[in-house]
């Protein structure tokens, strides 16, 4: 029982990270109907920049803040210069472009920083509480808290600010929004920037345990894709729930299902994704698209 | 002589030049390069399969390395465990991955579009861990070593040349098959299903059947290529079938042109020789070029090198045929020059 609870706690912590990356994917999908396979690689680049700033003597907290802002610019520029020219093209084109980003950004990280894994400092202190035999680390709690804060901030942004309203409008009605004076393209750029920052947070949280290396986020992207699919691609709340479910399922399967173990645990999100797509393609919280003929 | 006729003749001439070039490879190049050309051919078969699925039928797959791996392992296992002749294993390699293609193709009917991209992306990531996990069959990380087939005594030339010609024969069969498929009713229904499923269905095409058929055939091609790869390389391990292999095929398919058969050769040459050439300068260079090419191609030339060549030659033919007639048509011609692309669409 203790092991079971412990695995749930661990699962929730890694699930929170998957949820953050899934949130980034969903933000982009809602704005531009694109699934950005390269979200993880973009985040890896950002984390490398943080590491570099830190190496150069910039205080850790300050470098996190600087890079959060830089990530926003990076996301917005990626959209402006490489996605906007083909906006509205087929899914097929978009998938190819995003896989191109995936390969390209990973290569940039490899080029600049090499293949050797680097240690990335933990954001939260090493403190452990033991409650009823279950170890709660400050790191795990910190990750969950970060996810909560980020979710609240984003929902507040979308619900209570003008810019949030404009972003929702541009995502929902790309043709009609300009008629009421919304600068749709700026809003879509904003959406991509926001997603890049959210992705950066996810990568900065997971980097200490995975070690920083160019392909660090490859498997995390699979978990995030599964989380977003599970929750429904147009639902940020779904992405959070999906991420936590995927994290817990992974951790429980790796411990209690002998055949899966540690080596095959990347199969868990895959199986969840395949199953939900067969049973309920729109995801748990998603809405069905109605196609008029 | 009209434009289409000239174009057809040029196409036929181009095919002859490629065929002749492929036949002459062992004479023109040293034996190490012949080995690399054999690899190129095995990749080209898988890419051809990907083109059938993605270019002609419009289903996304980021996972052709998976089918390639299944074919490679099938050949390797049948040769070492059951002592089968290397040629006899190839139909099994194609059948096994065709079967996997069928197993994925059926649910893929519900996953058209983006979901199919996630699922295949996931599959591509899963190959190495699964190959490691199935250690009793795949020998895990050590991999399976094979003996290269020896050339028959009556044949001149060394082993590499012989294997090259085996691959050439293999790809000839595949190209012929693909060409037959694409020209007939099957090809038309595949393309109709890609361009507009709804209209295709109302014209009496069984959409599900066509899509499953496309997935199975395409996977079968990739498996066949994988089988040949195992023979050429004489060794398979999870290392040979990393996720990057699937991406390489995608890059190659895009570079060559997803709706062409000859594009598969160009794409395969690209992914075999570029990494070798660029690794001398920087290990990350090939990735950077791949990424840049994928994004760039989508921005400017979605039909790849072959599509680009086609557009250029069509423009050139038009110019040659119309120019001598009268000054008027010449001026009309120059007006149209800047947007040669519009002509194609």
Notes on the protein architecture:
The complex is a heterodimer of chains A (293) and B (345). Chain A has ten helices and two strands, in the order H-H-H-H-E-E-H-H-H-H-H-H. By secondary structure, chain A is an all-alpha fold. In chain A, a hairpin with a 2-residue loop joins strand 1 and strand 2. The longest helix of chain A is centred in the first third of the chain and has 31 residues. Chain B has a domain of 225 residues. In chain B, 78% of the residues lie in helices and 1% in strands. Classes of the chains: A mainly alpha (293), B mainly alpha (345).
Summarize this structure as a short list of keywords or feature phrases.
heterodimer; A: 293 residues; mainly alpha; two-stranded antiparallel sheet; 2 strands; globular; B: 345 residues; two-stranded antiparallel ribbon; 16 helices; disordered C terminus
| Fraction of residues in H or I helices of chain B | over 70%
Fraction in helix of chain A: 55-70%
- CA(first)-CA(last) distance of chain B: 23 Å
What is the 3D shape of chain B?
globular
Largest interface: A-B, 43 and 45 residues
Number of domains of chain A: 1
- The SS-based structural class of chain B is mainly alpha
Radius of gyration of chain B: 21 Å
Instruction: Report the mean per-residue pLDDT of chain B as an integer.
Output: 84
Q: Quick one: how many beta strands of chain B?
A: 2
Going across the biggest sheet of chain A, name each strand in turn. Answer: 1-2
- The strands making up the biggest β-sheet of chain B line up spatially as 1-2
Quick recap of the structure?
The complex is a heterodimer of chains A (293) and B (345). With 293 residues, chain A is mostly helical.
Topology at a glance:
The complex is a heterodimer of chains A (293) and B (345).
Chain A: H1 2-32, H2 39-55, H3 60-83, H4 91-113, E1 128-131, E2 134-137, H5 138-160, H6 162-172, H7 184-210, H8 218-231, H9 236-256, H10 267-279
Antiparallel strand pairs in A: 1-2
Chain B: H1 3-28, H2 31-56, H3 64-81, H4 86-108, H5 114-133, H6 135-138, E1 144-145, H7 159-183, H8 185-195, H9 197-202, H10 207-233, E2 235-236, H11 243-256, H12 262-279, H13 285-300, H14 304-322, H15 327-336, H16 340-344
Antiparallel strand pairs in B: 1-2
Helix pairs in contact in B: 2-3, 2-7, 2-10, 2-11, 2-12, 3-4, 3-5, 3-10, 4-10, 7-8, 7-10, 8-10, 11-12, 11-13, 11-14
């Amino acid at each position: 029982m203790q092991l079971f609870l412990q695995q749930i706690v661990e699962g929730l912590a890694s699930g929170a990270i998957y949820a953050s990356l899934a949130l980034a994917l969903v933000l982009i999908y809602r704005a531009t109907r694109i699934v950005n396979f390269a979200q993880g690689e973009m985040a890896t680049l950002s984390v490398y920049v943080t590491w570099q700033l830190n190496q150069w003597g910039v205080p850790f907290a300050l470098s996190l803040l600087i890079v959060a802002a830089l990530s926003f610019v990076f996301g917005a520029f990626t959209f402006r210069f490489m996605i906007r020219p083909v906006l509205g093209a087929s899914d097929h084109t978009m998938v190819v472009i995003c896989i191109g980003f995936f390969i390209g950004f990973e290569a940039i990280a490899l080029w600049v920083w090499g293949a050797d894994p680097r240690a990335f400092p933990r954001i939260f202190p090493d403190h452990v509480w033991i409650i009823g035999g279950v170890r709660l680390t400050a790191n795990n709690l910190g990750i969950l808290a970060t996810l909560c804060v980020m979710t609240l901030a984003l929902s507040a942004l979308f619900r209570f600010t003008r810019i949030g309203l404009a972003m929702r409008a541009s995502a929902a009605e790309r043709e009609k929004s300009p008629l009421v004076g919304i600068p749709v393209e700026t809003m879509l750029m904003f959406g991509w920037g926001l997603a890049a920052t959210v992705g950066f947070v996810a990568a900065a949280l997971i980097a200490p345990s995975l070690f920083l290396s160019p392909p660090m986020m490859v498997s995390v992207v699979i978990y995030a894709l599964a989380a977003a699919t599970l929750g429904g691609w147009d639902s940020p709340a779904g992405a959070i729930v999906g991420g936590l479910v995927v994290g817990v399922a992974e951790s429980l399967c790796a411990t209690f299902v002998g055949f899966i173990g540690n080596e095959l645990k990347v199969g868990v999100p895959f199986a969840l994704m395949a199953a939900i797509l067969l049973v309920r393609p729109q995801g748990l919280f998603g809405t069905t698209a109605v196609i008029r003929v | 002589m009209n434009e289409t006729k000239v174009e057809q003749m040029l196409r036929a001439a181009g095919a002859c030049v490629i065929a002749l070039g492929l036949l002459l490879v062992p004479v023109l190049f040293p034996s190490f390069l012949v080995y690399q050309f054999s690899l190129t051919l095995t990749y080209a078969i898988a890419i051809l399969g990907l083109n059938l699925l993605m270019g002609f039928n419009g289903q996304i797959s980021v996972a052709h390395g998976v089918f390639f791996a299944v074919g490679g392992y099938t050949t390797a296992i049948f040769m070492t465990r059951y002592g089968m002749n290397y040629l006899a294993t190839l139909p099994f390699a194609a059948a096994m991955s065709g079967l996997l293609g069928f197993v994925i193709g059926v649910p893929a009917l519900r996953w058209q579009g983006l979901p199919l991209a996630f699922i295949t992306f996931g599959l591509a990531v899963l190959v190495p861990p699964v190959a490691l996990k199935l250690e009793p069959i795949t020998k895990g990380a050590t991999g399976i070593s094979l003996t290269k087939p020896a050339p028959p005594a009556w044949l001149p030339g060394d082993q590499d040349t012989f294997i090259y010609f085996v691959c050439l024969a293999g790809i000839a069969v595949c190209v012929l098959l693909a060409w037959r498929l694409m020209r007939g009713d099957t090809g038309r229904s595949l393309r109709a299903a890609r361009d507009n499923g709804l209209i295709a269905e109302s014209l009496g095409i069984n959409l599900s059947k066509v899509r499953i058929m496309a997935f199975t055939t395409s996977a079968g091609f990739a498996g066949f290529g994988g089988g040949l790869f195992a023979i050429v390389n004489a060794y398979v391990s999870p290392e040979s079938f990393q996720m990057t292999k699937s991406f390489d095929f995608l890059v190659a398919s895009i570079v060559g042109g997803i709706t062409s058969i000859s594009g598969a050769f160009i794409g395969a040459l690209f992914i075999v020789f570029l990494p070798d050439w660029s690794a001398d300068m920087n290990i990350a260079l090939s990735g950077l070029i791949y990424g840049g090419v994928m994004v760039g191609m989508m921005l400017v030339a979605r039909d790849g090198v072959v599509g680009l060549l086609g557009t250029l030659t069509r423009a050139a033919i038009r110019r040659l045929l119309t120019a001598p007639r009268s000054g008027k048509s010449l001026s009309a011609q120059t007006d149209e020059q800047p947007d040669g692309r519009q002509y194609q669409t």
